[in-house]
Write a structure and sequence with these properties.
By secondary structure, this protein is α/β, with parallel strands linked by helices. It has helices at 20-31, 38-46, 50-57, 59-75, 92-101, 111-118, 132-147, 161-171, 174-186, and strands at 9-13, 35-37, 81-83, 102-108, 152-155. The protein has a 5-stranded parallel beta sheet with strand order 2-3-1-4-5. The structure holds shikimate-3-phosphate. The site of shikimate-3-phosphate (S3P) has 10 residues, from loops.
Length: 194
């Protein structure tokens, strides 16, 4: 898909457990661009975990706040690498905002693989259910078409984060790659991502 002039951020989307954070950090280390995790940004602003916010607010209000945080992060003119919460694609406004300023990469893995990675995890409120594998299958079915609107799709079932990062780096349009790398030149004090 042709990239517009405003495409500047590199955005990772995909289900919980697909490795967005590890891959995002590896890409940030490689490029020198800052790394932003939308869940971490939400937790930092509210000084509460995502689990606590789900418990206190419920999912709908969490999504509203997630939308605001995402819009703020994307509005920054300075290119960044973003990993997003798995549910970010559900709101059409988020998908439009991502499309307007980001090169979007979908990290795809099967629900079975994700389940193996997450079966002992207690930090994902949506999976604290009697049958988390079925939850993952249902979420994937509901979101698949949205994830597939990405500019590129990388199958991450078997690759390590560093290898996934290298593969993504090769696929990014040159204009986006240059913008991400230029953060080091423009901000010479920056030696590593924050
Ligand atoms: C969610 C994914 C989580 C987090 C919240 C809801 C989802 O982020 O935003 O638990 O709806 O898929 P990760 O994808 O980073 O785990």
């Amino acid at each position: 898909m042709p990239q517009s002039r405003t495409t500047r951020h590199l955005v990772l989307v995909g289900m919980m457990g697909s490795g967005k954070s590890s891959v995002g950090r590896a890409l940030a280390a490689r490029s020198g661009a800052p790394y932003i995790d939308t869940d971490a940004a939400i937790e930092g602003r509210m000084r509460k975990t995502v689990s606590a916010l789900f418990a206190e607010w419920g999912e709908a209000r969490f999504r509203e706040f997630e939308r605001e945080v995402l819009a703020g992060v994307l509005a920054d003119e300075r290119p960044a690498i973003l990993s997003t919460g798995g549910g970010v694609v559900v709101l059409p406004e988020n998908r439009a905002a991502l499309r307007a300023s980001g090169y979007i990469v979908y990290l795809r893995a099967s629900p079975e693989v994700l389940y193996q990675r997450l079966k002992r995890d207690t930090s994902r409120p949506l999976l604290q259910k009697p049958d988390p594998l079925q939850v993952l299958r249902d979420l994937e079915t509901a979101r698949k078409a949205y994830y597939e609107e990405a500019d590129t799709i990388v199958d991450v079932s078997t690759m390590r984060p560093r290898v996934v990062a290298e593969e993504i780096w090769k696929r990014i349009p040159e204009s986006v790659r240059c913008g991400l790398e230029s953060r080091l030149e423009r901000e010479p004090g920056r030696t590593s991502p924050p």
